[in-house]
Amino acid sequence: MSNVSDYLKWRGDLDFSQAPFNDVDNLILAQIAYVDMAGIVPVPGSVESITLAEASATFFDIHDEKEIKRCKSFIGKAPFLMREAAATKRFGSLVLTNYVDYVDGGKEEQFSAFHIRIDNRTTYIAFRGTDDTLVGWKEDFNMSFISPVPSQKDAVKYVDTTIERPEGKLIFGGHSKGGNLAVYAAVFARPSIKKRIIAVYNNDGPGFDSEFVKKDDYIAILPKIKSIVPYGSVVGMLLNHGEDYDVVKSSQTGVMQHDSMSWQVIGPEFEKMEDLSPRSRKLNKALSAWIEGLSYEQRAEFVDTLFALVSASGAKNLSEISIAKFKSINTVLKSFRALDRTERTMILKILASLTGEIGKAYKGE
Fold first, then answer.
1. Which of 68, 220, 249, 319 supports an S-S bond with 271, CB 3.0-4.6 Å?
2. Global pTM?
3. Highest-scoring range by mean pLDDT, 19-33, 202-216, 233-247, 334-348
């Protein structure tokens, strides 16, 4: 089986004038968006630029490999994919600009994006997906009852303020939440930008609330949206989607298929599947029914209480929870017991409703 690393070995010696930009190229750039480029890639307003090869070399000068490998989530692979891509003729000379990256606990926002100039005619705007921070994950959960969340608003502001050239083709893309942000930014970008967009890639990213997908601006951009999800997709099927999607084969199982490094490649394309797995369809049916069965107020209270419990462990990101797993779980359980009876009942009741929906889905009801 082959993945994006194998693709780089096979396709890396051909630049984009020799072999056009494709879906796999998109995913590689969306994954590189997970790399912390702070202090490396120039910020908006700067006249400077840097190639991917130069950025990769600088990154590995600054960061020790042992330090990078401490991140156990799938985003920890992104720097090594960047290094592989940077060593190729196809990606090494791509020009990076307009880097932004911030996490705001008060606004419950995590946002990062940058421009990747593919050639003089085409620029890919890469939006980072959910990183390892609890703030980032809470913002994802907030999407079930807040529209727009802060990062969606900032995605629109970002493209409207950083796309200054009046000509050229634009591609928006990202993985996970980054895919959602790419779609949102395309929907609400100013008209002069919209008409230059040739594709919007949502790589296993969540959808939107039911009212959003009815908007005229969303419907107008639909023909340009390309959603790609793995066979066992969960994240990419959350909430509502108006667009069709391509299903790709993964070497992972279950929810771990969200790791796009596991997506299988044949030549210049992903290895396609006819449909989602039966397990994925059942689980997504259950999750959709569960979310729709809760009021916005119930969703908000559940998410706030759930993340308050997790934060009580002292962890700032998912890796810290994993590292001190047993200690963290014990702290969370103590915090749960410290909740008042109403809050405990609410959490248990909502979790029970999820269990019930999963049971119904698997019984085919």
1. 249
2. 0.89
3. 19-33
